[in-house]
Fold each of these.
Amino acid sequence: MRRLLPLMLLALLTAPPAFSDAGMWTFHDFPHELLKREHGADIDSAWLDRVRTSTIRLSNCTASFISPEGLILTNHHCAEACLDEHSTGEQNLVRAGFLARTRDKELKCGAQNADVLVGMENVSARVLAAIKGLDDKTANETRKKTLAQLEQACEDASKGAASGALKCESVDLYQGGQYWLYKYHRYDDVRLVFAPERGIAAFGGDPDNFQFPRWCLDMSVLRAYGADGKPATTPHFLALRADGPQDKELVFVSGHPGSTQRLLTVAQLQTLRDVDLPRWLLRASELRGRYIQFGKTGAEANRIVEDPLNGLENAIKVRRNQLEALLDERLMQRKRTEEAALRAKVAADPALAGTGDPWADIARAEVRYRELSLPYTFLEQGAGFNSRLFAYARTLVRGAAERSKANTDRLHEYRETALPRVQKRLLAPVPVYPQLEKLTLSFSLERMREWLGPDAPAVRQLMSKESPDSLTASAVDGSKLADPAVRKQLWEGGQAAIDASHDPMIELARAVDAEARTVRKQQEDEVEAPVQAAAQKIARVRFKVYGTSVAPDATFTLRLNFGTVQGWREGSQEVEPFTHTARLFERATGQEPFKVPDSWLAVKAQLDPQTRFDLSTNNDIVGGNSGSPLIDTKGRLVGLMFDGNIHSIAGDYWFDPKLNRAVAVDTPIILEALRKVYKAKELLAEMGEK
Amino acid sequence: MRRLLPLMLLALLTAPPAFSDAGMWTFHDFPHELLKREHGADIDSAWLDRVRTSTIRLSNCTASFISPEGLILTNHHCAEACLDEHSTGEQNLVRAGFLARTRDKELKCGAQNADVLVGMENVSARVLAAIKGLDDKTANETRKKTLAQLEQACEDASKGAASGALKCESVDLYQGGQYWLYKYHRYDDVRLVFAPERGIAAFGGDPDNFQFPRWCLDMSVLRAYGADGKPATTPHFLALRADGPQDKELVFVSGHPGSTQRLLTVAQLQTLRDVDLPRWLLRASELRGRYIQFGKTGAEANRIVEDPLNGLENAIKVRRNQLEALLDERLMQRKRTEEAALRAKVAADPALAGTGDPWADIARAEVRYRELSLPYTFLEQGAGFNSRLFAYARTLVRGAAERSKANTDRLHEYRETALPRVQKRLLAPVPVYPQLEKLTLSFSLERMREWLGPDAPAVRQLMSKESPDSLTASAVDGSKLADPAVRKQLWEGGQAAIDASHDPMIELARAVDAEARTVRKQQEDEVEAPVQAAAQKIARVRFKVYGTSVAPDATFTLRLNFGTVQGWREGSQEVEPFTHTARLFERATGQEPFKVPDSWLAVKAQLDPQTRFDLSTNNDIVGGNSGSPLIDTKGRLVGLMFDGNIHSIAGDYWFDPKLNRAVAVDTPIILEALRKVYKAKELLAEMGEK
């Protein structure tokens, strides 16, 4: 969508810009006309429905059904937490890979869900009616309550229906321009079927992350199970097209892009550039150093730190390049131009009189945000308490307090509709590593003391006679919250159980709760509320001027995007859109992370060096799209998205059609690997391949 | 000086700004008129000469003579490397402190010098004559050669003189506006006499660094020895004034501010903001995390990492706040205004015709710098090879090659005049810790691979079959360069010895030398040369407009600054300029870094709780001023500078008279501690105190 906004604006100012396929479109407002105009193609509603219900939202990624019996294709890195959950010091599944040759060997992923979007309802009119005429603060509170009521009513109505109970989630599109209820069928039971070794899934590791050409088999296979404990029946699925797509072929990505900031104002982008991103990067870089050094203390330390380190390094690369994008004067200048054009529209159009200056309102709120940002980040957002045990403790402490309130009065993450997910996360039997807990908690307490200062109230309260290390040691060693049974007891025991608990982690969470809630309330009333009100005004203006020809920012809800298989020109170099197996072996150093697994070396002679491996397209995707299917016009799966090139990171703020590329695993290597390396006959048969 | 520049510019534009005492003045251009006008005071040339020759430049700090027998007062953190040098796993002098009750117990600081500025000669005319009419690249080379010749001639002339051989160093003031030869008497033999425990020297540690109020006894005492191995005779020294200065009293700081960037153009400041500072901070933050985690692996690890960690944390705090300052739109706007005013002067003044647009020249060079900056930083500046052993290896490899060339053809750090310092650093018997070497080298190789990319030539050359860890292990374990005797042999053996060496660290340094030299040459010819030429033009314009009423940027050469004892207003809070002993004990948590040493707790009852501890002034100081004497109008020592408040960090780019404060140890606590805590009778007697 970002491309259309500047396209139209630039059209007013200068010559029309180059063609591109940016835009993460909703399934309910898909731009058929645009697709026809640009590609001479169309897709019908049956295509849309089938693709939508074949697409899956995992807790952290996208995925798709690839068989009628619930088989799911996604990335290796989307299943890494599950692999980790089933690993031990003796058996490291992340590194070794996994294959269940029979269904009884499939491994349950404790914290994973699979959601399928089965219904979408526009509730904008009801929300707007509820907040009409209210001041910003009250409107913000009322909006949240209204959405909570709508979600609850939707879930209640679905209970006992033949098609099963639904998960209903409200969706805010266009920064308050539209409100929707999205209705999901949820599979609570997701199991691991297959994963290759991390060495081939993430060949090149962090150095190659966000790079192309690439040679990664970043795939894993899961399966959805029904409430009856049997493999789910999934008549809608995507068949693999064995030869992959052609160069320049029209292709679609269906998935859940996490978030983009393309409709933010210049003031908001400046806060990201000057405050949020630099501070986050400093903290994350230090944590990276601590993780790496910890990993060098032994094989087990190395194993348990691998998953969090991978996630952190990925996030650092993303945010570092986001910061670079925002430091690029061209981007900021374009944003200023867009903003000026929209402001000019407001000034010129009598129908928009009364809009006021929402851009200035947001700029004022941003000033307040900068004041609140440190305590808000450390106390409420948890940057001061980076620990799984603390997260459990906060959930228990807040969960008890919130559940005793009326549903609409609760913090949104404890509303009835949200509780099943909260509970699942809280009670999942995932391993807790005390050494890692100490590392992250001590680190975050130390940084909280540094950034808030030794004389800040929360710091004095916690550390007037303690150091970050001593406080951490007593909290982690003394806590029993690593045991799911203890958590269950405290969760079910409610406020009385929490009040009676002397668990030191519960005590820590209790100690900072009031101050954290206070700063959250300030943030909501003094930043979120005026920003929400102003953004809604800007959205109204934007609608008036552009309609839905501009796509909404990504919100980790289902979107469909079209593009073509494309290389690009990097400086003076032409980058081809396909890679092949031959170069994988040439590029291997024999040392991590450029080490090809033994399973591949053993069958190297049988592998066709010309097999296509990874490919690049100009589809507009961001984080959250990991695991998305790449689909041809006939609705067949022609690739598995897993990354973008380095320029794609700037896609959070704008889409540069010349440089921004998405990266997928090509289907030929998926089939070749399953067949020749992993000899996964059963899996191939289920996918309809011999 | 910064204040005068905006003062004059603002005078043209708006009302005159508030009064302030910014300006790091040279001793040869001290603004007597200004001092009279603002404080109704003056100092005569005898005062200036005595203060100048009582002030000492250490290798990393400032210091001053406080007795006629070579006794030197400086900060604890300036002597930490020396304390470290004499520490072992059993005896940690950094933590435990040290007191030599007799001179034969004083400990030699292997890498320390004490330089006293005994002569200053303006050589601008000679340099400008030499480069007249040359193109930028040739001018840049010729300038360096001319300065090398002048330094050499100066040193040669002093040899055999009755007053002893001098160290002559060229100084570039006003970015090429003036060139001077500064002549130093050097004491090669500096020994440690006294240091308190780090717990009291740096009470509050990193959390309190750059904060005020403070309670730090950041002092140490050294002694200069003559070539005859006897304590130096130093008739010029500063006597302590026991009661310290009064609030609002006029005070001077004599010292060596390291560097400021107040005369940089907007384009240069933007490069710092967008490129250099963020990248440095990311690397440093990760290294900080690695250091901290390494320190947790044991007592010895904790000890050996303490000194580098302290230095790193200090640098991170500085650069983080520098970045914040540059992200402050007020600062950038002021710089733009200043630049526009100066450009307007050029346009309006026929005498300045032919100046061209040096600001645009610099902006163009900055674009080129951004392209070169990654390979330049990693390969030439050593960010890819962070290791003491590698630094030795590079010195040996380059030293051999450079010493075989004519003096004026060498890289400037290997000119004859520079060799004694190079040799001293190379051969000093400082400890090398293999574990720490591996940590830093592996880290920096890994980041080099990340930032330059796995396919960059240097990365492929070093790591096509190696990982950062494996390459590091073989280089560190296999190297013999930790032994000073081996280094001496290789240094004295020259090119033949280097060519014959198979030491893996020498091999590593040899492997990257050509590429590092290439990028250095590009940087010098395509960035440094045009910037130097343009800056010289701007300096000429500035002189024409403001004369020497603007002080030059700091260059780690001797400066004198005046100000007054001052608190400030922090938000709604009035900060008093003095702290007292009572609050030290109240603020102690019993945990590092807020733990008062046992020696103080043992005599707590004898200490006067009202003794003044630290103080703040509005003197304009920056890093390098650490250890500087604070001096009253009678030339007595009334404090020991050791820090600034958090606002002082922005002093690199501008001086904010409302907020920028320097922080000193007050003299009453120095005497109280020496008398009651450390019972250092001998030291007190030598300082003329009972």
Amino acid sequence: MRKLIVGVMGGGEGASEDVCRLAYELGRLIAQEGWVLLNGGRGVGVMDASAKGARECGGLTLGVLPDRNAADASPYIDIPVLTGFGDGRNYINILTSNVVVALPGRTGTISEIALALKNGRSVILLDFDLGELFSEYRKAGLMISVRKPEEAIAEIKKILADTTQFF
Amino acid sequence: MRKLIVGVMGGGEGASEDVCRLAYELGRLIAQEGWVLLNGGRGVGVMDASAKGARECGGLTLGVLPDRNAADASPYIDIPVLTGFGDGRNYINILTSNVVVALPGRTGTISEIALALKNGRSVILLDFDLGELFSEYRKAGLMISVRKPEEAIAEIKKILADTTQFF
Amino acid sequence: MRKLIVGVMGGGEGASEDVCRLAYELGRLIAQEGWVLLNGGRGVGVMDASAKGARECGGLTLGVLPDRNAADASPYIDIPVLTGFGDGRNYINILTSNVVVALPGRTGTISEIALALKNGRSVILLDFDLGELFSEYRKAGLMISVRKPEEAIAEIKKILADTTQFF
Amino acid sequence: MRKLIVGVMGGGEGASEDVCRLAYELGRLIAQEGWVLLNGGRGVGVMDASAKGARECGGLTLGVLPDRNAADASPYIDIPVLTGFGDGRNYINILTSNVVVALPGRTGTISEIALALKNGRSVILLDFDLGELFSEYRKAGLMISVRKPEEAIAEIKKILADTTQFF
């Protein structure tokens, strides 16, 4: 039985300390559940912080990088997947994730949320207010908002209980 | 001297008749300027309508398709670029476009706007209200809103006058 | 009715003068037939020479580039398709080509021939000896060897006469 | 310190029983060294057999799939990376591998060997005779031929001893 892969998206260089702290906590909780953490793999912002949290709790971390080498990979990434495809790798991020948690970010994060919803991945917004954007997916239950990492974990468990799609 | 490539994004199956009419008019005007029209290439919605408009005015139409064959390509596409990369091709769409015009759409269109802005392409929103989304790019002058196809053309000419980047 | 897209593959920086002369002649003949020439788009070797030949005869040239910008594109390329995907773009090259002509090259060219055959594109080897490599495709009629550009054109016409797949 | 990622390439549906047995043995040895096994992820041929061998020895298996879902993934793959990019994923396979072992295969395998060499990855041919193909890389020491899985492991250790590039 495969482990669940949880994609964690969010800001890179521009992520605030508060957002990075949330990402770190989320990473810890994901690892404690025995799930695999996937992110964009670079050593900044939400990517670095969430991988650090997961690694510290013994979790496995997968980083899907835009580059052709691992020079900019976070040191907390166990498996750097080198796509060489720039932002085109965002599509691979969301396809590979069984469920996506999105923290505050900008264009890159928004593109990942959009592609995730379009491709049927549930998206949990963690302290990220998108206003009315994608509200049709919220109504359909595919996009959910929470304020704390613990709530994101609880929502993932609910999704798992409702589905057999991942296994 | 290369011709300008104008990317036209917007809804697919779900595009309204009004939106398709705008796309058709925009396609006509792009062709009349002698520019190349690029879109996602499928035979539905904004893709089909904009290609039809451009083709009827003798323009060249480039469709960057998600598929491995041209079965679903619009008949108005001259050059079907087969990427075989699903929604991952959205990144190729925006990189290849010198400037992007976005009509109303949903997740696919939003992902393209996000990737365009992230990669420095100007985005002209044609009758597409995004609220406060990406407002930092609006302030920086990279995202502009217009109501009519003629205004979109005028904005593209302003961008061209301000830059030498495309040639 | 769409124009045929002929992919021209072969060496880049390492291509000899003789090979470039063949590529130039081939480009001229492709344009004279009214076909679209597609190649990898960079301003070196077979890519540059074949695009130059086609352009001089009024043909349309499409360059599928590995880069995120057109800085290294051949000046003879009309439409630079920017994939940002490095050598991953080789797959897009062959999918988009209705038929492939391969001149002498090395690893990049071999990868394109392999992917073309695997995906059902006919490959015409122009003065390129591959020994027994891919001989099962030669037996099946999908890979053909010729010595002169004129012969390559004649073979493409035979393939066109045998098939309705492109239109 | 990251674990070494060893890419194992080779035939799919067409792989012989002998080749699959070699792949299975190789997978076991890779896992016993504590290395990560990467392959194309499908449940056939060298992909399935090498993943089975690695899994049985407690190794971690990464499958970079051409598809948008994991339906065709080998049950022995722990982490299915869903690229949705068809054979375009071959480029991601070789970029992500620190070193590549290639067993007998056809066009797909040849394309991966070509892309690996072009991008500076060492390729160890395991009981796979390529004649004079890529002989310039053999002379440069980037392509090596062995007959047994144990010899492939020994060659990987030599490469590791000569380099610091992976860590």
